[in-house]
């Protein structure tokens, strides 16, 4: 457990075990800062991956591709005829260079286009290449939809397994078991004969204290069993499968490489453990992890298409679309899914991707619908239909719900981050299995006695959203009926009956429990989503408020505020709508989603009518939450784990200049540079072994410091290694030159080594006087890894993405070194 | 008419009449390329604006703001205490510098934030500043919604005026007039007594040949009157009010400045002439112009808020949101509107804007609904409800419709562009009024005899989308009824009656007429949108195909392809759905919209069910149209008019380098540069008068060519002018220095003039070896005006946005000079 591998985003060391292609002999380079990457709040032990090397590593290597051609686009290859293996690839835990990747893709595209004029076969290749993106989207949609259906069905069955078993066949869940039963009315559903609770099965009794305790015990036992299985599977087979995955996916989409995070083992284990975790009754949802599952599908399917396998930037376009498909199946909201991907997850999202994402999201949603896991032919998770329009005055309670949502969101983020930090820094983090078991046990013990916490959270939300009909038998709809005033579909507001009051108490208790337990649940070593628990908190609060307002309006319909629209016999308050607004507010407070949130909720109801209340609540919630803390839960987790994520939404507002951020600082030794035609192989090798930088600027001469280009450490090492092996006469005293023509050599000197092909002749530069806000903007928009700094045409220093991130942390009064990559 | 003003995007001359603030004495600068800016396909005569100088110019000047502080952010002002008026502003027909504008906004924000700690008043200022964006959105939504309602109501009334008048009061339209009439059934609607056709009014006869001819005559007469009024108003008061406005708005949003294009005169005239143009029966729609109207609202309301008035980049964010509000009111589709703005119109669209746009779109939609111009409380323009799901096999006709849509789109664009080019290059363009009258007359004469062309196009589309109910009396629903097989809501497929066959013939004729006349209509000097005519073409084609398939299925239900889902008595084909799919396909073919198109159509039906057919058609249509010609109609018009618009969607795929594009070329004289501390005022003034460049690089010395910064021509002229007037001792022999400290001067030399404050110390640079694809990417993503080119640290040349555009045109085998700014 104590073993730490050196991982360093910008200045990678070469002895990283993830790097296995070019087997060169660089050795003395473990002097870089020690860094430890963390996944979802717990220390990720990289030695653990040694337990699953054959498959996970395979994928890792699969993902590491050969660069076909030099990394510098548009430059002639004149060093050797075939490209050097390894040049142009990335190591694990490194940031990709978007500009380079996109150039490579354009080169590829150009080549295919040019060839297509030569033969019919090449033309077919071009057309198939053009349509491969759509085919890939189709496959992602199908796979993600199918997996989501599978997860839904299994989770349903296993959730019911905690309470009993079907005699007609253990593989039926409660609902299916009772489908053909004679008791068809909703009220008798619980009493169908084919379904036996555990007490009925074991002691043939369904009533009485002992039967209750037995059922209680079995409920908690199953929950513990599921949780144990989930956490063990995650720990043993795929440590990346825990958490919601969204913070990591955001980081990956921004250009970071985490090998295996979207691999097939992660997919398999996450799918299985997600079912287990949801069934265990923990306060977590499957929506976030479904995004991770869909992204795994996307990543794996990318390997079938050269275009996407070999290009990190193109692959990220696919992953953005896959994330949209994930949300689409989670909620049955394809448009909302695409907007979620655009707003929350993606970094680089060209319009072409928008259209493809939409296609993938739609295919996924319809695949899920044809599997029909909810048994109602509905696309959406919570189908709601309200009959009454809302009144303008109701905006007041809606805004109140927004405030509640914002407060809860901010409180939850603070609490959860504090707890995750505690887990990280104390002994707690060392016993993840025990932690999961304890939380599961507490959740189970507290949940069973209260029917609203005993049922699955999505069922609870469904019930809270529901507008009470005449025949609804649930406690929440136990109103004092007055059939005389009923007109058609519309039910007038009525006095609450005893059932409603009981339900109110139980819901209040459920609210407190959900609020507290969710803080401790999110971040454990099991797959856990946040959407459903957040929505549940909001829906409970909303329903409570809704019933309150409804009763107020019923008993005080003569108050001025109710007069006119809430006269006796009018159906003026819909508590279900309050629940929905509350759910949106809480989800907004936690995730800080805006448009996508409203659109997802809109797709649930299908009526533009209710967008205004949802929008009012979402806006208030975001403002309130932002006033307390700027970060949403995903950003908070990204920062907690120190991922190198350059937030695209927050503006950098400080007045610093590039010269304040660049390396070397004034007190540092001067910048390490290569000269274009005067250093020997030995000089360069010494420089490489003495420093840990990921690249070196090349200048005309040390005196002039006029910049020629930039060369990557990795390419340099591979090329020298390769030349020493394959090129005759290359020895330590050979001159390395980056110029087009070799410099004049003294007689009897060894042949010089030309490395112009690995030199990036178009490095990005800024002047030392450039404000950092512009530099940050350039890094974000162009997806740079590094940028060189000049003053009056002379090279002065270098700014890496890591420097930028450190500087931003410093400006926000955070200790940069304790924050990043720790 | 022959008068041409010099307009040149990047290298503006200073004697542009649009520029009036800094009245300095630069004179000898009219040597730049002659350029003529065109609006909507006809030569725009700038001398014409002299007819409306007081107001239009006022606004123009209103839009030109004073730069508060230097244009270079974060630099101390040490030249004079107060900022020099004019420094940091733009001239008309110039491209803004996004980086500079955003820096200015951040400076402003920083200042407010810092001040807010000092006093409560400043804190309130800060809060109000933060919320001003939302307030602005609210106002835009309210104004755009109200105007859209006004336009709808007026256009309804005036369209009906062509056919007759209401006796109860001439201000009632046909529908309102007959509302209280005793004949309430739909069939008798046309016979209500209060509504008199012109023949009834004039000769008291409604039947007979003479009455028909009289009505015919009045119809055409009114149409000509409306058209004449519209084109005259446009020509006299606001030449910018013609066309759809979307190409120009795209250009403005990409950073170009066209003063007065979004001014109050344009708004007023466009609103009035839009009503007239729509009422005249021309084959045009109000949807595109509504976007222009909404953007005018946005621009005018910006003047109430300093934050937006003074910053061109911030203002463009508001305009993006206003465009969304425009589409939102046009179709009643707020989500579709936002996506349209994102996909089609906007250039720089941060996520913050997405959320605000959504708010504006929603407010606008609900404002319109509360005005309720359609009298049905529906938000959407065409409310449709289908009862039958579609069958998988129907995808074949849907794809066929997609192909038709794509072909029509490509054909329309080619035809329209060819006609517009003809209008531009021949005598035709000199008689815009005559042209409008002729087209109106032809349209009116052809339209009246056919009831499907006589009705307004949106009514036609409504009728085509409609799913025939049992009681529908329209000819399109004249089926052979067989009431025995009717089950509830669902009508089985039936044999078509005589009415349907007549309707088919009339629709076919209408299709041919619409296809041809639209080509000549779009681009005339009246406000004209394309959405509705395109949708009409597609809806007619779709309905024809739908009825065909329906009858095929009815008579041949035993064919294998129909077996199983189209048995007798089944309601299997919905011709209305075909019409809708066809409309989407044609709209997609013309505009090349994707996601926004599907979402707008989805919002019309409200059922996710029908997204798949829509998507299939939209995808096919786009592919087919793209295969024929890459550009959508808006891009084609942008290119036709030579606007400096750098398309963000198309990838630049050629292998050229920065050195191939930069100026000076090899054969040109060397680059004009300023030195940092050795040129006199006279030297600089000579340089300015001898060249027309919009800016000059500043180097350490001519020998070293090491770059120090970049200074804008305009700032330089204003500063020197200012210094000569206000600073003692500044004469022609004074040394200008851009350094921090003044250079050592010989004794008795005049004091030197320090201009560091106008020097941009952080100009963007690329190396000469940078591939152009990367340069184009940088220009797009960062919104640059120019970029300097270096080689090994030495300044080599400059690339302006115009050079990039010319190069792209050249690479696409278009003559760059005939294309741009002509």
Automatic annotation (TrEMBL), chains A, B:
<feature type="transmembrane region" description="Helical">
    <location>
        <begin position="262"/>
        <end position="284"/>
    </location>
</feature>
<keyword id="KW-0333">Golgi apparatus</keyword>
<feature type="transmembrane region" description="Helical">
    <location>
        <begin position="216"/>
        <end position="241"/>
    </location>
</feature>
<dbReference type="GO" id="GO:0000139">
    <property type="term" value="C:Golgi membrane"/>
</dbReference>
<feature type="compositionally biased region" description="Low complexity">
    <location>
        <begin position="23"/>
        <end position="32"/>
    </location>
</feature>
<dbReference type="InterPro" id="IPR002247">
    <property type="entry name" value="Cl_channel-5"/>
</dbReference>
<keyword id="KW-0813">Transport</keyword>
<keyword id="KW-0129">CBS domain</keyword>
<dbReference type="GO" id="GO:0008021">
    <property type="term" value="C:synaptic vesicle"/>
</dbReference>
<keyword id="KW-1133">Transmembrane helix</keyword>
<feature type="transmembrane region" description="Helical">
    <location>
        <begin position="318"/>
        <end position="342"/>
    </location>
</feature>
<feature type="transmembrane region" description="Helical">
    <location>
        <begin position="503"/>
        <end position="524"/>
    </location>
</feature>
<dbReference type="GO" id="GO:0010008">
    <property type="term" value="C:endosome membrane"/>
</dbReference>
<dbReference type="GO" id="GO:0005886">
    <property type="term" value="C:plasma membrane"/>
</dbReference>
<keyword id="KW-0547">Nucleotide-binding</keyword>
<keyword id="KW-0677">Repeat</keyword>
<dbReference type="GO" id="GO:0005794">
    <property type="term" value="C:Golgi apparatus"/>
</dbReference>
<feature type="transmembrane region" description="Helical">
    <location>
        <begin position="392"/>
        <end position="411"/>
    </location>
</feature>
<keyword id="KW-0472">Membrane</keyword>
<feature type="transmembrane region" description="Helical">
    <location>
        <begin position="431"/>
        <end position="448"/>
    </location>
</feature>
<protein>
    <recommendedName>
        <fullName>Chloride channel protein</fullName>
    </recommendedName>
</protein>
<comment type="similarity">
    <text>Belongs to the chloride channel (TC 2.A.49) family. ClC-5/CLCN5 subfamily.</text>
</comment>
<dbReference type="Pfam" id="PF00571">
    <property type="entry name" value="CBS"/>
</dbReference>
<dbReference type="GO" id="GO:0005769">
    <property type="term" value="C:early endosome"/>
</dbReference>
<keyword id="KW-0868">Chloride</keyword>
<keyword id="KW-0832">Ubl conjugation</keyword>
<keyword id="KW-0406">Ion transport</keyword>
<keyword id="KW-1003">Cell membrane</keyword>
<keyword id="KW-0812">Transmembrane</keyword>
<keyword id="KW-0967">Endosome</keyword>
<keyword id="KW-0067">ATP-binding</keyword>
<feature type="domain" description="CBS">
    <location>
        <begin position="662"/>
        <end position="726"/>
    </location>
</feature>
<feature type="region of interest" description="Disordered">
    <location>
        <begin position="1"/>
        <end position="35"/>
    </location>
</feature>
<dbReference type="Pfam" id="PF00654">
    <property type="entry name" value="Voltage_CLC"/>
</dbReference>
<feature type="transmembrane region" description="Helical">
    <location>
        <begin position="530"/>
        <end position="549"/>
    </location>
</feature>
<dbReference type="GO" id="GO:0005524">
    <property type="term" value="F:ATP binding"/>
</dbReference>
<keyword id="KW-0050">Antiport</keyword>
<dbReference type="InterPro" id="IPR000644">
    <property type="entry name" value="CBS_dom"/>
</dbReference>
<dbReference type="InterPro" id="IPR046342">
    <property type="entry name" value="CBS_dom_sf"/>
</dbReference>
<feature type="domain" description="CBS">
    <location>
        <begin position="758"/>
        <end position="818"/>
    </location>
</feature>
<dbReference type="InterPro" id="IPR014743">
    <property type="entry name" value="Cl-channel_core"/>
</dbReference>
<dbReference type="GO" id="GO:0015297">
    <property type="term" value="F:antiporter activity"/>
</dbReference>
């Amino acid at each position: 457990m104590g073993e730490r591998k050196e991982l360093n985003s910008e200045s990678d060391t070469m002895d990283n075990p993830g790097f296995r292609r070019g087997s060169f002999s660089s050795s003395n380079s473990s002097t870089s800062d020690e860094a430890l990457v963390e996944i979802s709040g717990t220390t990720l032990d990289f030695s653990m991956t040694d337990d699953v090397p054959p498959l996970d590593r395979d994928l890792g290597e699969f993902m590491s591709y050969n660069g076909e051609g030099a990394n510098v686009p548009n430059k002639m290859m004149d060093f050797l005829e075939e490209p050097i293996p390894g040049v142009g690839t990335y190591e694990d835990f490194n940031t990709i260079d978007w500009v380079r990747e996109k150039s490579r893709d354009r080169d590829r595209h150009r080549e295919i286009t040019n060839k297509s004029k030569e033969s019919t076969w090449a033309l077919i290749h071009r057309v198939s290449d053009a349509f491969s993106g759509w085919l890939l989207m189709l496959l992602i949609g199908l796979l993600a939809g199918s997996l989501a259906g599978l997860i839904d069905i299994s989770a349903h069955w296993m959730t019911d397994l905690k309470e009993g078993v079907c005699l007609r066949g253990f593989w039926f869940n409660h609902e299916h078991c009772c489908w053909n039963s004679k008791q068809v009315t909703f009220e008798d559903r619980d009493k169908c004969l084919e379904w036996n609770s555990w007490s009925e099965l074991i002691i043939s009794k369904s009533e009485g204290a002992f039967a209750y305790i037995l059922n209680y015990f079995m409920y908690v036992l199953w929950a513990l069993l599921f949780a144990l299985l989930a956490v063990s599977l995650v720990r043993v087979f795929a440590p990346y499968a825990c958490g919601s995955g969204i913070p990591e996916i955001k980081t990956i989409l921004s250009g970071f490489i985490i090998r295996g995070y979207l691999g097939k083992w992660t997919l398999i284990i996450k799918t299985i453990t997600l079912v287990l975790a949801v069934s265990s009754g923990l306060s977590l949802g499957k929506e976030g992890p479904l995004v991770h599952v869909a992204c795994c599908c996307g990543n794996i399917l990318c390997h079938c298409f050269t275009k996407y396998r070999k290009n990190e930037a193109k692959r990220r376009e696919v992953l953005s679309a896959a994330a949209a498909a994930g949300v689409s199946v989670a909620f049955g909201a394809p448009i909302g899914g695409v907007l979620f991907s655009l707003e929350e997850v993606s970094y680089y999202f060209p319009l072409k991707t928008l259209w493809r994402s939409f296609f993938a999201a739609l295919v996924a949603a319809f695949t899920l619908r044809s599997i029909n896991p909810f048994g109602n032919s509905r696309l959406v998770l919570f189908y709601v239909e309200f009959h009454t329009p809302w009144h303008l005055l109701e905006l007041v309670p809606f805004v109140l719900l927004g405030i509640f949502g914002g407060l809860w969101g901010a409180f939850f983020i603070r609490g959860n981050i504090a707890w995750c930090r505690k887990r990280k820094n104390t002994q707690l983090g060392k016993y993840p299995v025990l932690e999961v078991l304890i939380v599961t046990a507490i959740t189970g013990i507290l949940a069973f006695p209260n029917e609203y916490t005993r049922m699955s959270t999505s069922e609870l939300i469904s019930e809270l959203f529901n507008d009470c009909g005449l025949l609804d038998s649930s406690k929440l709809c136990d109103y004092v009926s007055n059939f005389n005033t009923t007109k058609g579909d519309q039910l007038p507001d009525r006095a609450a009956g005893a059932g409603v009051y009981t339900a109110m108490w139980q819901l209040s208790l459920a609210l407190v429990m959900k609020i507290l337990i969710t803080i401790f649940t999110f971040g454990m070593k099991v797959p856990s989503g946040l959407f459903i628990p957040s929505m549940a908190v909001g829906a409970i609060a909303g329903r409570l408020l809704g019933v309150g307002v409804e009763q107020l309006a019923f008993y005080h319909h003569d108050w001025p505020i109710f007069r006119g629209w809430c006269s006796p016999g009018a159906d003026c308050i819909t508590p279900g709508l309050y629940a929905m607004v509350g759910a949106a507010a809480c989800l907004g407070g936690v995730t800080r989603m805006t448009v996508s949130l409203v659109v997802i909720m809109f797709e649930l109801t299908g009526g533009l009518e209710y967008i205004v209340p949802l929008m009012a609540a979402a806006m208030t919630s975001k403002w309130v939450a932002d006033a307390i803390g700027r970060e949403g839960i995903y950003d908070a987790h990204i920062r907690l784990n120190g991922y190198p994520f350059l937030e695209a939404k927050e503006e950098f507002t400080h007045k610093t200049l590039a010269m304040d951020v660049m390396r070397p600082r004034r007190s540092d030794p001067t910048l390490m540079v290569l000269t274009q035609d005067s250093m020997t192989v030995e000089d360069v090798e010494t420089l490489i072994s003495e420093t840990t930088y990921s690249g070196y600027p090349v200048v005309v001469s040390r005196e002039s410091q006029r910049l020629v280009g930039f060369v990557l450490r990795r390419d340099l090492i591979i090329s020298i290694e390769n030349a020493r092996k394959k090129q005759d006469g290359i020895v330590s005293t050979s001159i390395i030159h980056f110029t087009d023509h070799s410099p004049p050599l003294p007689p009897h000197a060894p042949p010089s080594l030309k490395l112009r092909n690995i030199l990036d002749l178009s490095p990005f530069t800024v002047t030392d006087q450039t404000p950092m806000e512009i530099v940050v903007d350039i890094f974000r928009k162009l997806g740079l890894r590094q940028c060189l700094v000049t003053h009056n045409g002379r090279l002065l220093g270098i700014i890496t993405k890591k420097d930028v991130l450190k500087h931003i942390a410093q400006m926000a009064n955070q200790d940069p070194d304790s924050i990043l990559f720790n």
